[in-house]
Amino acid sequence: MAAVLVQYVVLRGDLARPPLSWPLGAVVAQGCHAALAAVHGYREHPDTGAYLEQGDAMTTVVLEVMAAPRGMMGNNFLKKFGIFPHGIRNNSLTKFGIFAH
């Protein structure tokens, strides 16, 4: 059985709450940018091609962290959810990647 490919986008929840109080659109834009940048950054990786070939069956899961203490949004954070990434990229305030699940 082939691995199920899921794109995970991890967003900082504190961005939308005081004192930062980002508008919802700005937080959504961060997630959209992260998802697209991950696909672009890993466009040559076979898992990315396989993920995109799923078409309407592509799955993206958005996870929230309350804030981003140093190292919280890296691979160790994702492993707490049972997500074992083979590659992760950093896009300013957002971490993202496409992972075999």
From TrEMBL:
<dbReference type="GO" id="GO:0004045">
    <property type="term" value="F:peptidyl-tRNA hydrolase activity"/>
</dbReference>
<protein>
    <recommendedName>
        <fullName>peptidyl-tRNA hydrolase</fullName>
        <ecNumber>3.1.1.29</ecNumber>
    </recommendedName>
</protein>
<dbReference type="Pfam" id="PF01981">
    <property type="entry name" value="PTH2"/>
</dbReference>
<dbReference type="InterPro" id="IPR002833">
    <property type="entry name" value="PTH2"/>
</dbReference>
<dbReference type="InterPro" id="IPR023476">
    <property type="entry name" value="Pep_tRNA_hydro_II_dom_sf"/>
</dbReference>
<keyword id="KW-0378">Hydrolase</keyword>
<dbReference type="InterPro" id="IPR042237">
    <property type="entry name" value="PTRHD1"/>
</dbReference>
